[in-house]
Design the sequence.
């Protein structure tokens, strides 16, 4: 916080010094028309503002291009993740069904052996 305050004060002092030393300087400027006696400070600020605006436009265009291409990639990867998850769930379901069938078969065997044992005991009596 203090460092940013010191940097801001230094920038303001530099700007005040720059403006103070160039306030009386003027030049001729051509931009599709010749402008005479244009203050140097005005030209510097116009050039700085134009640079900031162009840089912001370049950043905006770059972000729009990357966001449109990046927007497709996560959807594909998300779809792949969902498909993999469905595949895993199907495999687990198959395993659980197989285990249920196996346990049902074991129980059926146990039940038939119990029935056979009870019938044998009845026959023996």
Sequence:
């Amino acid at each position: 916080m203090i460092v940013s305050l010191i940097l801001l004060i230094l920038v303001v002092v530099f700007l005040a010094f720059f403006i103070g030393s160039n306030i009386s300087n003027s030049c001729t400027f051509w931009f599709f028309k010749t402008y005479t006696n244009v203050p140097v400070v005005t030209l510097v600020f116009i050039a700085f503002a134009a640079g900031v605006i162009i840089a912001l436009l370049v950043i905006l265009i770059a972000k729009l291009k990357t966001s449109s291409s990046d927007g497709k990639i996560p959807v594909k990867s998300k779809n792949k993740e969902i498909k993999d998850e469905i595949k895993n769930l199907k495999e687990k379901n198959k395993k659980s069904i197989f285990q249920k069938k196996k346990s049902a078969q074991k129980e059926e065997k146990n039940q038939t052996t119990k029935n056979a044992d009870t019938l044998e005991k009845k026959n023996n009596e």
In short: The chain has a mean pLDDT of 80. Helices lie at 2-22, 40-124. The chain is about 85% helix and 10% strand.
